[in-house]
Design brief:
Length: 584
Amino acid sequence: MAEEGGNTATLLAARAIYKKVEGYLYLTDKPYRIVWVHPTTGEVPVALSTNECTNLYANKSGVKPPKLKIVANDVDYNFIFAGEEPSCFVNRDAFRDQVKLLIRESMTQPSVPVTSGEATPEVSTPIAMDVETPQELGQTSVASGTPIPAIDPAKELAARTYRLKKKILMRDTELAALHNAVVINGKMSEGDFWASRQHLVEEAAAIEGQKRGKSSRLIDPKPDVSTTGDIKISITPQLQMDIFEEWPIVKRAYDENVSNNMTKEEFWKRYFESQLYHNNRASVRSSATQHRVKEDPIFDKYLDPLDNEIEPRKSRQDSVSRLVDLVSTREDHGQTGNTLDVTMQAGKQRSSLPLIRKFNEHSERLLNSALGEMKSSQAAGPTSAEKDVVFNDIDMEDLHGGEGQVGIALDMQNHQRYFEGRSGSSAAGSTVDLKTALTRLKAQTDGWENRMQTVHQDGQAGADAFRAITSAVSARTKVKSTKLNVSPEFLKQMQTMQSTTGEYLRQFWFHITPPPEGVPRLPVEERAQKIGAMRDRLLVIQKRIPELVSQAAMHRWDSTAVQEAFAPTMAAIERAVGLVGGPS
């Protein structure tokens, strides 16, 4: 990138994704060029002169992610602007407006024939960005003469970590107040504060790195009714892209007919009046709607017969698990007389079959976009590996008996007498008349209902247990609902001391106990220094808390309640200080 990094200045710079790689997009000044730089290799796969650009497209403002497509020499260059919101949208809009302005200037030069812009249609379509007034360059661009910055990975990582920490503090107001009390006031360094909260930064980074998937809604544009009673459907660039992705047949019709047989506005008007649109709708088609649809000689060529037969037109080629395959129990029906389960009765309402299969295909596309295409396999039957998988799924530990379990060996004396007693009882039991024993047992169980009514359980134990639970709940509720009889300023002072003490104790034990997995441990000397610093701060607070209690008593507030509130904190301080000893 010697040419760009030499005397060339940059007007705009932003992080942008090109061909699934996040790099850096620049707009250079005189000559005006659009440059995309690879973040690691420094290669420049895109270096376009604005004189070569003929058009550009951008998705609707506010729609994620912000995209920009530049057309140059009949080639499309697609960029997705990365970064936090709203800066990514601001960068996209700045590039869009400035490049649009440069394209207009190049097209109006005498050596280039002037092309008349298309009229803005009532149905908004993705034509060149000549609808909005471009912003002033000074409002969104970098100052002219600024050289293209060199990429420093360390600075990029530091800036990203700073943004993540800022996002965490903005989301958690209590943590932000604690950060202000101990870090902003100079009682603790920024590194020490976040050392024990590295998991929060990693969690925020994981959330930021997640990419939003496709919407699970089936594309079904809803018409709007204007004040004059006209029905209008607004086609935005994002909606057109979604329709083409969901219904490739519509994109094929668009490519084959627009600019040849009709204009864009006429295409969309005739499409929404055609049978093709009603077949693609995400609702059950009624016969009345079908009678009102006009015949269209162009769009009717792209119609496929309705998939409303019992067997779907597109049979699945991938193997289905036997545990969820509804066809696997087909042999249980038929001659045996077993009625098909409701899940097996397809096509009871034939008109709903196309819609059901349409949703199934839509769900399959969503899964394929997230998990990748599934491998097709037309197996005649389950393989041995599949049988093992099914067996492992239904094999439960509770279904196995206790075979193979060796009991605990008893150290008994005089084993012979033990077995003689068992054999003697068995011999005696063998002489019992079973009929007589059964009659006697039946006589003992007769009238068990009346005898159960005479049984009375002492309810004192249950009452005591209920009373204990109630008192515990009441005590907790009383603690939460009780308000200290102190001034708001004094209460805020107590809360600040409590939160700062908790942070000092957190740092104290963080350096004493082994660190979490993946967190490097500091050297012994540095840990001892930090532990000593936290101990000194805890000793200061240990003297400060009795002063607060005395201050509450002096103002005739509830000093006893203040002392009880700080009792757990004082106990924690004494335990920590007692572990390492007093001040040196």
